[in-house]
Every structure is written in structure tokens, then in C-alpha cells.
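ok, trying the design again with the full structure, not the truncated one.
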């Protein structure tokens, strides 16, 4: 929808341009394109924001993350009381993850146009920007015209469960079909809820169907693989105060999703580990102490 106070189009949604401008359309019916005196127009810039909001809304991108893109993903943060060598190691991990996900988004194409349908599994501690990168890729892809959906792992399971309520207007298939058919599914925070047989069967069905139909899935998780959990104290992972336990220290991804689903993810996705501290926490603490 055009802005009523737009100085370029005065609320019409169209701005006048030279007739040779790409996408220009004649405002006068039956206009001769060779006649430079006729009035030609293109959609005004004020309508693009509305289109973007509609596209991101259909993709279920949360308002909180709609600002995310590759440009504002920070890879050179500074943290106090950390050696330069350690900080450089963390920042290299962030930079590599950004490069891989940006290339994934750039090269994304419908399954019928590509031979490899591998998705991505972004794995790492809280606060390293996994969701930021996933949303950045989804935004770039859907704004190019492909279909895409964002679902939080727990919200998707809840939506499916709610469809079983006879008082609910939705059905299981009305929730599942878009998830199974969309060009790109972003499933955020995988393993965040404790596994139940029903949850594992449901997630397994979604992943198997998308895998068999060669559709691309991008997932994020706070849980590492078993070997990484066991190696965590010596793997340059962020330290934590004594006595404080984290999900990553307690469980592996296999513990949270089961062996079958983890095995399927090896086939479906390229695993990208982001090994860095929780920058949201670090930066928030620094800001608080400096205030």
C-alpha cells in the first residue's frame, strides 16, 4: 500500500519516470511506447516496504528478527579480559559461519534446478547469532520469490498438537502441508523441548518427507554432537562460572532428538559449528558496567 503522504507518488503508488526505465508502464491506455511524450510510471519506492512486510509475514519471520541480515551480523566483537588469540579464534568462527550461510542463500534454487539439496545445521551455544544467520538467509531467499517458512521447534510441535483439539479450526494437515511443501523450512532451536515419542515421530516425519522430496531445510540448535560435548572443556568453548550447568554441557543433540533424526540430519544438512561465547550476554554486561 502506498503512503498517503509520499512526495513522489502523492499516494497513488506510482512515480513518473523516463519511458526507457526498466519496468515502466504506460498510464494512458493504448499508449505508443515510441511516443516519449506519453506518461510512464513504475511502482513507487514507498510500496516496497509494504511488499517486504507481506512477504516476511507469509514466511512467519518474527518481528523481533525482521531487521536481521548478513550486513548487520557482527563478526568482530570485542570482549574484555579475553586474550587476543582467543578472541580472534571466536571471530574467525563467526566469520566462517556468515560466509557459509550467505553463500547458501546466494546459491539457493528450487529443487528442480539443483542437483544437491543439502541444507544447513547451525550448531553452537546460545547468543552466537544462529537465528540471525538463519533469518538472513530466509529473508534473502523469499524476497527473491521462493517460498519459505520460519518455525520455532517448540511452536511447531504445539501448533500440530493444537490441531487435534476439536474446538480448533485448524487441522493437522493445514499445519503440516506448508511445512512439508515450502521451498525452504527454517526450524529454529531444535531440541529445545525434552523429547517425547510423539515429538520425535512428528519431527522425523517432517524431515524424512522433506528429504525424500528433495526440499531444503535449515536448522539451528544449541546442542552439540556427543564427541563435541565430551571435548568441550578443551575445545575453546566459552567458560562458565563454577557450578553453573548448561544444556550443552548436559546433553548432546542426539540426546535431544534421537539417533534416527540425528542420522537423517547428517544426510540432509551440512553441519556448521559456531564456537564463540554468548555475545548478547557479554555486550549487555559491558554496557551495564559502563553506564
Amino acid at each position: 500500500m502506498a503512503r498517503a503522504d509520499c512526495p513522489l507518488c502523492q499516494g497513488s503508488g506510482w512515480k513518473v519516470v523516463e519511458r526507457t526505465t526498466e519496468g515502466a508502464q504506460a498510464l494512458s491506455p493504448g499508449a505508443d511506447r515510441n511516443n516519449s511524450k506519453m506518461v510512464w510510471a513504475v511502482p513507487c519506492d514507498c510500496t516496497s516496504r509494504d511488499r517486504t512486510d507481506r512477504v516476511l509475514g507469509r514466511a512467519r519471520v518474527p518481528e523481533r528478527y525482521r531487521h536481521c541480515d548478513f550486513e548487520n551480523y557482527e563478526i568482530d566483537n570485542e570482549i574484555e579480559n579475553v586474550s587476543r588469540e582467543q578472541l580472534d579464534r571466536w571471530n574467525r568462527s563467526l566469520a566462517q559461519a556468515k560466509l557459509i550461510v550467505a553463500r547458501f542463500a546466494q546459491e539457493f534454487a528450487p529443487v528442480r534446478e539443483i542437483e544437491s539439496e543439502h541444507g544447513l545445521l547451525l550448531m553452537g551455544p546460545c547468543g552466537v547469532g544462529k537465528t540471525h544467520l538463519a533469518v538472513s538467509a530466509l529473508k534473502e531467499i523469499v524476497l527473491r520469490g521462493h517460498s519459505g517458512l520460519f518455525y520455532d521447534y517448540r511452536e511447531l510441535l504445539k501448533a500440530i498438537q493444537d490441531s487435534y483439539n476439536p474446538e480448533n479450526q485448524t487441522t493437522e494437515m493445514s499445519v503440516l502441508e506448508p511445512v512439508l511443501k515450502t521451498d525452504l523450512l527454517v526450524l529454529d532451536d531444535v531440541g529445545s523441548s525434552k523429547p517425547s515419542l510423539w515429538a520425535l515421530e512428528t519431527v522425523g516425519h517432517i524431515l524424512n518427507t522433506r528429504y525424500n522430496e528433495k526440499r531444503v531445510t535449515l536448522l539451528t540448535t544449541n546442542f552439540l554432537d556427543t564427541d563435541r560435548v565430551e571435548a568441550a572443556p578443551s575445545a575453546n568453548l566459552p567458560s562458565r562460572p563454577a557450578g553453573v550447568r548448561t544444556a550443552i554441557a548436559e546433553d548432546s543433540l542426539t540426546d535431544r532428538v534421537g539417533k534416527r533424526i540425528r542420522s537423517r540430519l547428517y544426510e540432509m544438512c551440512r553441519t556448521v559449528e559456531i564456537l564463540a561465547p554468548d555475545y548478547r550476554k557479554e555486550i549487555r554486561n559491558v554496557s551495564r558496567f559502563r553506564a
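Keeping the full-length input from now on. Residues 232-249, 286-291 have pLDDT under 50 and may be disordered.
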